[in-house]
Specification:
Elements lengths: L2 E5 L3 E6 L18 H9 L4 E2 L8 E7 L2 H12 L4 E9 L5 E5 L24 E12 L9 E10 L6 H8 L13 H11 L6 E9 L6 E5 L4 H7 L3 E2 L2
Parallel strand pairs: 4-9
Antiparallel strand pairs: 1-2, 2-4, 3-4, 5-8, 5-9, 6-7, 7-8, 7-11, 9-10
Amino acid sequence: MFEILYQDNELIAINKPSGWLVHRSWLDKNETVVVMQTLRDQIGQHVYPVHRLDRPTSGVLLFALSSEIARLMSQQFTTKQIEKTYHAIVRGYLFDEAIIDYPLIEQLDKIADKFADKNKPAQQAVTFYRGLSHIEVPIKVGKHDTARYSLVELKPQTGRKHQLRRHMKHIFHPILGDSKHGDLHQNRAFSQYFGIKRLMLHASTLNIVHPTSLKPIKIEAKLDQHWLEILSHFQSND
């Protein structure tokens, strides 16, 4: 059963585990166990997605309990009234805070986006990041005898596909466990050392305005045991 972070008559939010598809997809036609169906069975009513998380990403995932509420919440995401905060573990040391303003060309899926415009120009993509803590471990990767990692806070200001993963790659600090945009050698070494094989990206908080009461709501998702085990090794930057 999913951990329910928030629930009322209009909305429900869960702490999505890493590895779960939000809904059935052309990307994995053989996957029959997805969040939407499992959550529907858990609470005994239909749920309507208002945003998504990539399959390997964990954390806050929000659903509406009616199509009308889903429409209202989708408008909040479209008009950037939603504030999202993620945490990630990346390669190398990041001590500062800055804004990545780097347009991204939309990544198309061969099947799902078969008829999409393949010549669409790059779209604005903006991410705020802040280095929180760091670690150096005795992992030999290439010519280096140790590996350095940082815990970072990420706040996307836009919502492009794989934006956080692509932006961190752009500044040469890819997220650990990212098989598509990351460093495969670092991923393998990190996995072997910590005994954990997953994307180290977690949707920690979601700030919304309730669609009917219009009150601000902050929804938080705690880190799982794998995260906590790794973070116990980190040192604060303060």
